[in-house]
Amino acid sequence: MAVGVTGSDLMVRPGPEKFEDALTRPNARPMDFTGHPMKGFVFVEAEGIATDSSLADWVERGASFSKSLLAK
């Protein structure tokens, strides 16, 4: 998974090495489905992807990590 949508949030998988950096970005928070944050995944609120360039940046972050994974 690189990116996805849940409700009005974008789910992004920047990966564990870029996780902390992603959290410093406006409107980003740890992804938490079960009461425990998932390391390497973030939610980005709608305000954080309001422009084409901000959305493209987040998609590139997720795609970049996904491309680095071994094929299954």
What do these coordinates show?
The protein contains 2 helices and 4 strands, in the order E-E-H-E-E-H. It is an alpha+beta fold. Strands 1-2-4-3 form a 4-stranded antiparallel beta sheet. It is globular. The relative contact order is 0.26. The mean pLDDT is 94.
Short description:
The chain is an alpha+beta fold.
Let me know the largest β-sheet. Answer: 4 strands, antiparallel
Order of helices and strands: EEHEEH
Quaternary structure classification: single chain
Low-confidence segments: none
Structural class of the secondary elements? alpha+beta
Helix content: 25-40%
Number of domains: 1
Shape: globular
Q: For the terminal residues, how far apart are their CA atoms?
A: 12 Å
Widest sheet, order of strands: 1-2-4-3
Please report which band the strand proportion falls in: under 5%, 5-15%, 15-25%, 25-35%, 35-45% or over 45%: 25-35%
Number of helices: 2
**What does the radius of gyration come to?**
11 Å
Calculate the mean pLDDT score and round it: 94
Tell me the number of strands. 4
Describe the secondary-structure layout.
Elements: E1 3-6, E2 9-12, H1 19-23, E3 28-31, E4 38-44, H2 52-68
Antiparallel strand pairs: 1-2, 2-4, 3-4
Keywords:
72 residues, alpha+beta, four-stranded antiparallel β-sheet, 2 helices, 4 strands, 26% strand
